[in-house]
Amino acid sequence: PLFNQSAFETDAAVAAEAPAPLPLPAADAPTVTEHKERLRRQLRALVTTVSSTFGVGHKWIHATLNQRCGGNVTTATLSEIEARLRIASGWLARRQYDGLKQ
User: Fold this and answer.
1) How many other CB atoms sit within 10 Å of the CB of residue 83?
2) Which partner from 4, 9, 32, 41 sits 20 to 30 angstroms from 47, CA to CA?
């Protein structure tokens, strides 16, 4: 016979008991990696602004952020990148850079 009823019933029972697949993220929702990259771009722009505002080299600003937030931006978590953004924004808001200088 071409059709095996018992195999069909077994496959259907297994499929009914299988856990539902995880939902896929919406096509327009950014992944964690994309979100991190967007925040890193914002941080680079902010570091450029801090650098030109206070006359401090980029490497010193990043060194200060590394010192205060731990590690470096390439391995930072989302919360660490957000903390870096808050610190750099705070310098601009206070009009005072209190980090490492050459």
Assistant:
1) 16
2) 32
